[in-house]
């Protein structure tokens, strides 16, 4: 079969419009720091983001996902909802530079707490209910700064409803919620934890993130988030959970996002650097498999590279 015929009958098409580019933002000015475990990925202060936003827009990438790395941490994650926080400043800066770029913000406490967990600690354990109020404050602060979408990644029960209620009561009814609905307790988050300085100081996150062995649980978790008002649901990680992406897509009438996480990125980068694989072919194959599984949008650190590669095919 010729290349032309193969193109005509291709069942799955990966597009630049499918991509979301994650960005780590830090306090200060003039900061561009490469993440050691993630070659080609950087932390930026807000003032360094306009050229990045303009480049993404020129490449056709429609959205970014912001993660904050604060200057100070405490037990209540107070920097997470500060009006002068790194994320809040980054939102405003990006929106001024490229108003049409969709700004999604991660809503979690792990990078902001002095213990590194995604919720407040009471009696030595993560307390679900007291965390909800703080998550709602974080989401609202992002909305006030101009975020288009808030994305709670904490996996606390009831957080979508708490956030939706807070947004609606404050008049931000048009701010959407992208829920990390099926977020697994994965071994593939290591490089991210270095980038965001978010590793837990004790224990692990298995009590509130999902067991990688479970599939039916993912459907229950997604269902709860949809009932509470999630506009988009997410499966994280992506490559090891293609079956979950497919099940979610077939079960729920909402857009599905998939997060190709830091460990997936780092593995491909390392294999490519060793000469074991062709990076471009491997990345496009992996992302096509995620799209084929049913993802409507793919969060990937390769987004800028993929946008350039796809342009060469047009």
UniProtKB/TrEMBL annotation:
UniProt keyword Magnesium present: yes
Cofactor(s) essential for the protein: Zn(2+)
Binding site for 5-aminolevulinate 1: 193, 205
Binding positions for Zn(2+) per the UniProt entry: 108, 110, 118
Record organism: Fervidicola ferrireducens
Chain residues that bind Mg(2+): 221
Alphabetically ordered keywords of this record: Heme biosynthesis, Lyase, Magnesium, Metal-binding, Porphyrin biosynthesis, Zinc
Biological processes, Gene Ontology terms: protoporphyrinogen IX biosynthetic process
Pfam families: ALAD (PF00490)
Protein's pathway: Porphyrin-containing compound metabolism; protoporphyrin-IX biosynthesis; coproporphyrinogen-III from 5-aminolevulinate: step 1/4
Positions bound to 5-aminolevulinate 2: 262, 301
CDD domains associated with the record: ALAD_PBGS
Catalytic reaction(s) noted: 2 5-aminolevulinate = porphobilinogen + 2 H2O + H(+)
UniProt cross-references to PANTHER family, sorted A to Z: DELTA-AMINOLEVULINIC ACID DEHYDRATASE
SUPFAM superfamilies given in the database record: Aldolase (SSF51569)
Self-association state and partner proteins as the record states: Homooctamer.
Gene Ontology molecular function: porphobilinogen synthase activity; zinc ion binding
Protein known as: Delta-aminolevulinic acid dehydratase
EC numbers on record: 4.2.1.24
Keyword Metal-binding among UniProt keywords: yes
Biological role stated in the UniProt entry: Catalyzes an early step in the biosynthesis of tetrapyrroles. Binds two molecules of 5-aminolevulinate per subunit, each at a distinct site, and catalyzes their condensation to form porphobilinogen.
Database matches in SMART domains: ALAD
Residues of the active site: 183 (schiff-base intermediate with substrate), 236 (schiff-base intermediate with substrate)
UniProt GO cellular component terms: cytosol
Record-stated family: Belongs to the ALAD family.
């Amino acid at each position: 079969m010729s290349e032309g015929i193969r193109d005509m009958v291709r069942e799955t098409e990966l597009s630049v419009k499918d991509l979301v580019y994650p960005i780590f933002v830090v306090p200060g000015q003039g900061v561009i720091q490469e993440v050691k475990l993630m070659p080609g990925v950087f932390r930026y202060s807000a003032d360094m983001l306009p050229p990045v936003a303009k480049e993404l827009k020129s490449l056709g990438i429609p959205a970014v996902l912001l993660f904050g790395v604060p200057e100070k941490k405490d037990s209540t994650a107070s920097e997470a909802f500060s009006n002068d926080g790194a994320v809040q400043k980054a939102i405003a800066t990006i929106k001024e530079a490229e108003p049409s770029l969709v700004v999604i913000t991660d809503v979690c406490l792990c990078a902001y707490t002095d213990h590194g967990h995604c919720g407040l600690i009471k009696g030595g354990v993560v307390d679900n209910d007291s965390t909800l109020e703080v998550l709602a404050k974080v989401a609202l602060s992002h909305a006030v700064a101009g975020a288009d979408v808030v994305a709670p990644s904490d996996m606390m029960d009831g957080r979508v409803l708490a956030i939706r209620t807070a947004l609606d009561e404050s008049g931000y009814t048009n701010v959407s919620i992208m829920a990390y609905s099926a977020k697994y307790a994965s071994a593939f988050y290591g490089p991210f934890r270095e980038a965001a300085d978010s590793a837990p100081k004790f224990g692990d996150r298995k009590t509130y993130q999902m067991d990688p062995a479970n599939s039916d649980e993912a459907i229950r978790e997604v269902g709860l988030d949809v009932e509470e008002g999630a506009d988009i649901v997410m499966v994280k990680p992506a490559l090891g959970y293609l079956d979950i992406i497919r099940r979610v897509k077939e079960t729920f009438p909402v857009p599905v996002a998939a997060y190709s996480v830091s460990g997936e990125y780092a593995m491909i980068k390392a294999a490519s650097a060793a000469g074991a694989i062709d990076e471009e072919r491997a990345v496009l194959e992996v992302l096509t498999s995620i799209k084929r599984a049913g993802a409507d949008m793919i969060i990937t650190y390769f987004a800028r590279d993929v946008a350039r590669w796809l342009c060469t095919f047009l």
